[in-house]
Automatic annotation (TrEMBL):
Pfam families: CobD_Cbib. Converts cobyric acid to cobinamide by the addition of aminopropanol on the F carboxylic group. Coiled coil: none annotated. It comes from Denitromonas iodatirespirans. GO terms for molecular function: ABC-type vitamin B12 transporter activity; threonine-phosphate decarboxylase activity. This is Cobalamin biosynthesis protein CobD. The chain crosses the membrane at residues 51-72, 79-98, 151-173, 291-309. Keywords: Cell membrane, Cobalamin biosynthesis, Membrane, Transmembrane, Transmembrane helix. InterPro entries: Cobalamin_biosynth_CobD/CbiB (IPR004485). GO terms for cellular component: plasma membrane. It is found in: Cell membrane. It comes from the Bacteria.
Length: 311
């Protein structure tokens, strides 16, 4: 069987594992990795040579694990297949993303604002105690759109590029960016490399995610929002994803949001009405359709490669 065909079938198997089983409830590998990263940061983060220390911490956290994955994959046969499938299952967060988003949408639809605020606080970093229903819906919708790229489509892209080791590299780099990639006094220098590596690894997947949202939603609105609104967003990858997603849903995102006790004014994303529970449900459905599209295209490409190999 051609390598890409095998990779496409393994991708479908990993997505199916995530759909049937979801993330490990206990002893999740990314939780353990987060503890390792935290220990390295506490040990190495000092004012002097901050960028170099951050680079060393990133290398110590990521490279040994990726090298082990590469070694396992080089064993071939069932070991290689199991390595790819298990790493994709661990890295993929499709079911978890949907479950967390639905846990916000359900009480919001029922008018239970307190519970909706509590649950959206699990998936966003902004202050949630005083959010209005529209702000809760906006926070949840933005999280679904952005994490659709990080937890699903970026993961699948790097799996198709480099199998299990590729997807592991992407998810670990993305995790370190989420932990260290802040422009605060503590992380400004130490986390700079982690932020830049995540930007580079996520550049192409983010634009493929944005294109997927555009094709499967209101295409003209999505492309317009992507072109005109994404450049104003501070993140080079989150901007296209969230702008295209907001346009595809024809909903207004961005704007004011409370962070660390202060209201932060962010650029507007999308067009149309203010978000509500239906917007969040529509975002979940959009991500699900995009996942089906990616799996179908991977299997189609794998089938074509297999056919050409046996022509």
């Amino acid at each position: 069987m051609p390598p890409f065909t095998q990779l496409a079938l393994t991708l479908a198997a990993g997505v199916l594992l995530d759909r049937l089983i979801g993330e490990p409830r206990r002893y999740h590998p990314l939780v353990g990795f987060g503890r390792l990263a935290g220990a390295l940061e506490r040990r190495l983060n000092r004012p002097a040579f901050g960028i170099a220390r951050g680079a060393l911490a990133w290398s110590l956290a990521v490279l040994p694990l990726v090298l082990i994955a590469l070694w396992l994959r080089q064993q071939g046969g069932g070991v290689a297949l199991a390595t790819d499938a298990i790493l994709l299952w661990f890295a993929l967060g499709a079911r978890s993303l949907v479950e967390h988003a639905q846990a916000v949408a359900t009480p919001l639809q029922a008018g239970d604002l307190a519970e909706a605020r509590r649950r959206v606080g699990w998936i966003v970093s902004r202050d949630t105690a005083a959010l209005t229903p529209a702000q809760v819906a906006a926070a949840g919708t933005e999280s679904v759109l952005e994490n659709g790229n990080d937890a699903i489509f970026g993961t699948l892209f790097w799996f198709l590029v480099g199998g299990g080791p590729g997807t592991l590299l992407f998810r670990l780099a993305n995790t370190l960016d989420a932990m260290w990639g802040y422009r605060t006094e503590r992380y400004l220098h130490f986390g700079r490399l982690a932020a830049r590596i995540d930007d580079v690894l996520g550049w192409l997947p983010a634009r493929l995610t944005a294109l997927s949202y555009a094709l499967l939603g209101h295409t003209r609105s999505a492309l317009h929002s992507w072109r005109h609104q994404a450049p104003a967003w501070k993140s080079p990858n989150a901007g296209p994803v969230m702008a295209a997603g907001a346009g595809a849903l024809q909903v207004q995102l961005g704007g004011e949001a409370p962070y660390h006790g202060q209201m932060t004014q962010r650029p507007a994303l999308g067009t149309g009405a203010a978000p509500d529970a239906a917007s969040l449900v529509a975002a979940i459905a959009l991500v699900r359709r995009a996942l089906v599209l990616w799996v179908a295209l991977a299997l189609l490409a794998g089938g074509l490669v297999w056919g050409l190999a046996h022509a």
